[in-house]
Amino acid sequence: MCKEPESWEPQEYLVRFPDGRQVRGSSLKRSESLVPPDFGVYLLGRDPKCTDREYLWVKWRDFSAPAVTEDAVASLREAYRRAAYQRVEVGCRGGVGRTGTALAVMAVLGGVEPDAAVLWVRTNYHPKAVETAGQRRWLSELLPQLGGPENRRSSK
């Protein structure tokens, strides 16, 4: 049985997806001063070695797409699943490009149409989210595969 997630404090960089799940987008530096999540996904060139939370590390260099798409998607699906009952954070060094790109993937899992995901994240998270042409290209190839209702259902 799934329980409701503990509440985040107000104004903690929360993104609420259309299905009601919430995820905190963050930079690692900002995250250190906030309430720790129950679970995090960190998109970095090297393992952040967090000791105060359960997390997954996705190898993802700054201003690029993830090193292994399958690893990134599996980690983001897990974060999305856990957001139904835990406080979940997704973050990178700056909290904008890679984090915004990951939140676009999660937005599609949460009900946003694939072709609207980048604009949705820029409106609901950060106006400069998904910073590079490579990140936009990666999303344009990936999101249509995630976008069907049958794929969304398997993510919940």
Order of helices and strands: EEHEEHEHHHH
* Rg (C-alpha, Å): 14 Å
Task: Count every helix, treating DSSP H or I runs of 4 or more residues as helices.
Answer: 6
Unreliable segments of 5+ consecutive residues:
152-156
What helical percentage do the residues reach? 25-40%
| Biggest sheet record | 5 strands, mixed
Highest-level CATH class: Alpha Beta
Strand order within the widest beta sheet? 1-2-5-3-4
What fraction of the residues are assigned to beta strands by DSSP? Answer: 15-25%
Q: What general form does the structure show?
A: globular
User: What would CATH call the architecture?
Assistant: Alpha-Beta Complex
User: How many β-strands, per DSSP?
Assistant: 5
InterPro entries: Prot-tyrosine_phosphatase-like, PTP-SAK, Tyr_Pase_dom
Pfam families: PTP-SAK
Keywords: Hydrolase
Organism: Glutamicibacter bergerei
Give a written overview of the molecule.
The chain is of the alpha/beta class and 156 residues long. The chain has a single domain, classed as Protein tyrosine phosphatase superfamily (Protein-Tyrosine Phosphatase, Chain A, Alpha-Beta Complex). Helix content is 37%, strand content 17%. It has six helices and five strands, in the order ββαββαβαααα. It has helices at 28-31, 69-82, 97-109, 117-124, 133-146, 149-153; strands at residues 14-16, 22-27, 39-44, 54-59, 88-92. Strands 1-2-5-3-4 form a five-stranded mixed beta sheet. α2 (69-82) packs across α3 (97-109), α3 (97-109) crosses α4 (117-124) and α3 (97-109) packs parallel to α5 (133-146). The longest helix has 14 residues, at 69-82.
